[in-house]
Task: inverse folding
């Protein structure tokens, strides 16, 4: 006795036969019975299930997760320490004033724009800012002499310095 | 054509092409497409070691088909029966249009295509439960004579010859030739012949 050959060129299709229907029905009944057998779950188990489902529900998608990460990064920046340090550097008696502070939390960069009394004062600021506790690096991005070129008085210099925060700050 | 729901009508595909397709008597009526062996191709595939999957098997079968027959496998529908525990597998190919376009046309005419098979496969599946493990199973039809050699339940050879009405050699001679080709002593196999010309074989 030989077995039939399983070669058929007919386009494959899903066929549901009566036996398949019966098996599916029996499976469904079994599932329902099993489900009722497990109900009601214990309180502890129920709370775990509820927590798990809530956790599942509040899981953000890719964009939301990125936004949340960015927000957390922004909140984690040491604002107080940075502002205190900048206040001390550019406070009363300093040879420069702060005009603008911008932050890029994702890159952990603070960009400050200020105006110094002269170019020599600007040259010293990166080294001074680099010495601050939360600052890893300070780079003079650009500077521009302001005022009338014919003036004999020292002319103010507008500058931009980028501060990179330390890892983990 | 039977009106019973479980019976299928048969659409014969001969050497000159498929017979005219009638409209289905009712929507979803079953149809079997039966392709003559004179347009089908058969060969025996030795089971390769370390076969990774069905895709690799398909590639292997196509490669072997091209080597044996010299036709482009892209124009043919190729199937293999990868029987477990067997070292030799029977492979079959029919022109692709009979496996794709013809069933599509039949479906458009209201039929539900149940099977598309070659004549030899259909006859073998009909008779296989009554066959011994050592059998030369033959289909002697008007268009051709197909002889398949089975030794210890495994396929060892299969060839399609001209019909017995047009053959210069008798059935015994054909069987001896095929057995010799497969390195088998013909006397060990019990010939079983079906088909409209079986009387000529006997």
Result:
């Amino acid at each position: 006795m030989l077995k039939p050959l399983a070669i058929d060129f007919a386009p494959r299709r899903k066929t549901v036969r009566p036996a398949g229907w019966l098996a599916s029905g029996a499976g469904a009944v079994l599932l329902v019975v099993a489900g009722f057998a497990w109900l009601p779950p214990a309180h502890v188990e129920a709370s775990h299930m509820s927590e798990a489902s809530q956790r599942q529900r509040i899981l953000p998608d890719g964009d939301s997760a990125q936004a949340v990460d960015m927000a957390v990064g922004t909140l984690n920046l040491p604002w107080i320490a940075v502002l205190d340090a900048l206040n001390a550097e550019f406070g009363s008696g300093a040879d420069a004033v702060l005009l603008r502070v911008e932050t890029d939390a994702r890159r952990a960069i603070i960009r400050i724009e200020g105006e110094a009394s002269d170019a020599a004062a600007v040259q010293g600021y990166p080294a001074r800012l680099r010495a601050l506790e939360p600052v890893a690096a300070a780079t003079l991005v650009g500077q521009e002499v302001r005022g009338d070129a014919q003036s004999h008085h020292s002319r103010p210099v507008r500058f931009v310095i980028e501060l990179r925060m330390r890892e983990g700050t | 054509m039977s009106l019973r729901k479980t019976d299928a009508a048969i659409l014969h595909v001969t050497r000159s092409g498929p017979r005219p397709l009638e409209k289905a008597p009712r929507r979803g009526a079953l149809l079997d497409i039966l392709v003559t062996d004179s347009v089908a191709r058969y060969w025996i595939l030795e089971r390769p070691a370390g076969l990774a999957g069905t895709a690799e098997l398909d590639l292997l079968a196509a490669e072997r088909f091209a080597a044996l027959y010299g036709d482009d496998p892209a124009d043919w529908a190729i199937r293999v029966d990868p029987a477990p525990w067997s070292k030799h597998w029977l492979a079959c190919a029919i022109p692709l249009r009979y496996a794709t376009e013809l069933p599509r046309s039949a479906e458009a005419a209201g039929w539900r295509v149940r099977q598309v098979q070659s004549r030899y496969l259909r006859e073998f599946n009909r008779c296989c439960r009554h066959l011994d493990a050592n059998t030369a199973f033959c289909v002697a039809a008007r268009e051709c004579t197909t002889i398949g050699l089975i030794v210890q339940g495994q396929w060892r050879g299969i060839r399609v010859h001209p019909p017995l009405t047009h053959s210069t050699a008798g059935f015994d001679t054909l069987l001896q030739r095929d057995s010799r080709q497969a390195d088998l002593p013909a006397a060990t196999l019990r010939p079983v012949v079906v088909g409209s010309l079986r009387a000529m074989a006997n």
Chain B touches chain A through 31 residues (CB under 8 Å). The CA atoms of residues 12 and 19 of chain B lie 6 Å apart.
